[in-house]
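ok so i was messing around last nite and threw this chain in just to see what happens. nothing serious, just curious
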Amino acid sequence: MNPNSALEFFQANIGQKMGQRSPSPTGRWLDGTLLAAEPGSLTVQFTVREEMCNPARILHGGIAATMMDDLMGMTVFSLGLDVFFTSVNLAVDFLYAAPLGATVVAKSEIIRQGKKIIHAECRLTDEAGRLVAKAASNLVATSKGIS
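result:
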């Protein structure tokens, strides 16, 4: 894949809901709005929907982790590499609650890009700028090519 074409795809979709545009089926379900796409970083805004909540009507930790894991994967995809990378670990800290109807923003960052392993981090904040959760992941190159 042309290294610029993947990033250009995201840059062309800034301000758009990712529902039908995301390369990830999970990303399509999350249906965030792409706010920024820079080399090694993506920013997406999500609205906390009822099906994303736990019984206390706050963002379920598993969904928060999914938001960040999916975004880190999309960020690696945006690098335009020739092979697919997959998460081998995910460390998440949950720090603040986001209630039903809240808007949260996830921002990813590639911390280190090696040939076989890429280390990425993501921060999820609420409208007041409070850190809702943060995650770190190592993604490893697979034998599956990008088509």
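not much to say yet. DSSP finds three helices and six strands in the chain.
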